[in-house]
Amino acid sequence: MTSHPVSLKFNLTLGLTAAFLAAASPVAAQSADRAKLEADPAKLEEQAKLAEMAKLEEMAKAEYQAKLEEEQAKAESQAKLEEARAADKTVFAGEKSPVQSSANPFKLDIVAPVMAAASDETSTAFQKETLPGLSEYLQKTLGDKVAGDDSRLLLDPSKLKLQEKSDVRVYFLGGETKYSNTLGFNTTGSGVFSGNPQLIFPDATSAVSTYDPANDPKRSSSAPLAPGDFVNLGRMDAGTLLDFFLISNGANGGSDVFSTNPSANKDGISHAIAFAYSMANSPLLVIGFEDLYSWDGADRDFNDLLFAIDIRPVDPRDLTATPEPAMATTLFGLLGLAMQRRARRSTATS
Ligand SMILES: [Ca+2]
Ligand SMILES: [Ca+2]
Q1: Any idea which ligand is nearest the CA of 177?
Q2: Per-residue pLDDT tens for 157-190?
Q3: How far is the CA of 324 from the centre of ligand 2 (A)?
């Protein structure tokens, strides 16, 4: 390779001169640059574009990172479920609540003791990550607002069929009512007069009507539950149809029974609403009961007893990452739930 001393020297001199000028008068150089930019709107625009692109890239990176973390959490949860499935073990455990109700309407069997809120890994995650948002959502959505809104897509609470062998857990969420209601379920019939009815919460009464992080309710014999308390219903075979029933004021001798299956109700109309609510790693099925007949002054607010059903194993890949409650798709494929539009509603709202 031959050298070019002349050209090299020339470039060196030019460079030194520019450096000298900039060092001697930095302010002059900067204002000259600015003037040049101001005179060139295209360049200004170019710079703004570059800044915008850098910002977008930063946002995309953060979003990607969050997505990666979410995927990882899902994969870990899935691995845990697969492991439990392989070992034929339940992922549900818990510790018995210190207060168990002595109520026993219709002398029905009680499926299992009530477990205290946040007493195993799954319920602790539920308590911290799901219950606050879910309670807030229910406060905003149910009550008077249900009666005024006919357009929501809901799940049909009379068609809750398990698609595979599953472990089922029911969380108590709360309820606004003057009654001490009883919650039960039936897998071979509807209500309490057919099949195999069993009690879940003999007395679904709490000192608070909804979860409130600032108000930790004391459990007592007349108000044995706290939001987040739960009962493990056990392992159920694929094809099991879950029917839930409420005995209105059952803990105080009441005997009006309402099923999630409207045809089992004396008035023949629906006393429950159901919808899917998405959690991080598993969707929940949420059910709200109305505890009065319309001829007894039902307000049809569907918040007299609120509970959530957690069904495992689920495949997190079936879930969509919707931050808001997912009304239709999440549980639809999972449980074979049929959807219905609430086309008809009782007009009695006294
Ligand atoms: Ca009501
Ligand atoms: Ca109510």
Answers
A1: 2
A2: 888 888 778 899 999 999 999 999 999 999 999 9
A3: 24
Cis previous bond, 5, omega within 30:
no
Cα 181 to ligand 1 centroid, rounded to whole Å: 12
Max intra-chain CA distance, the chain: 109
Whether residue 288 contacts residue 245, with contact meaning beta carbons closer than 8 Å, is answered with: no
Q: What is the pLDDT of residue 327?
A: 40
Q: What domain range includes position 262?
A: 95-341
Write down the pTM of the prediction: 0.69
Ligand number with the minimum distance to the CA of 147: 1
Q: 340 C-alpha to center of ligand 2: Å?
A: 23
pLDDT at 15 over 70: no
Q: Quick count: other Cβ atoms within 10 Å of Cβ 71?
A: 12
In this structure, are 70 and 201 located in the same domain?
no
- Using the 8-state DSSP alphabet, how is residue 96 labeled? B
Q: How far is the CA of 304 from the centre of ligand 2 (A)?
A: 4
Would you say residue 46 lies in a domain?
A: yes
